[in-house]
Design a protein that fits this description.
alpha/beta
Length: 280
Amino acid sequence: MRDRLLESPVIHCDETSVQVLKEPDRDPTRQSWMWVQASGPPDRKVVLFDYTSSRAQEEPLRLLENYRGYVMTDDYGGYNALALQSGVERLACMAHARRKFVDAQKVQPKGKTGRADIALTMINKLYGIERELKKADDEQRFIARQEKSLPISGQMKVWLDKTQSQVTPQSALGKAVHYLANNWSRLERYVEAGYLPIDNNTAERAIKPFVIGRKAWLFSDTVNGATASAKIYSLVETAKVNGQEPYTWLRHVLEWLPHASSVKDYEALLPWNCSPEMPQ
């Protein structure tokens, strides 16, 4: 599954905290991390979870070692070193930028239109174009983005350059404008190719089941338990995004795994290569 992930031209990344009670030389209240990487074409999607005790930049470097392609992330600085690797290009999430302007819009005087509305109008136009292109192929999407999205992006940059010096940095609007300016080069570049995503929603959807589950089970007891959890979430979520019923697919894999003796045999058990039947 990791081999298939690293073959993808784009990988979505995100991370969330997890508590592990019995980590060597660490206080039980310290935060550890669960990372997710998601990628692949519609018929071969991969979702991988990885547990680490650290959130340092060495972790994404290790997880995506030797990867060459685009990486879609939020603006967390831990991904900066990854983006400096030869052949790695970093994208930023437009949905994150949009949310900050939504927050700024909420604190505007009621009934009045402000700068947040102007930014949201332009961002919403970009998303409207993406909805229109949902069924387009990569070439059609690239052409349409050049014709329709690029001019709007240019207007937004002019507005951003003008507005940046006119807002208070600590205000909700100032924070939204700063986020947009700080990530602009990564935000606008999705128009470079038809296969590039406008946001990181793929990773956020992938990590959501873990975040929801954490509310119920709260923590992992040991490092081995957290690692096992990452592997199980990887298998189950990859099965789900490929249209497999997780229990049925896992049952099939566990029945046939003892008979696998070659790469070809293991490949045949991947969710997109087999069609297990529900047990009677």
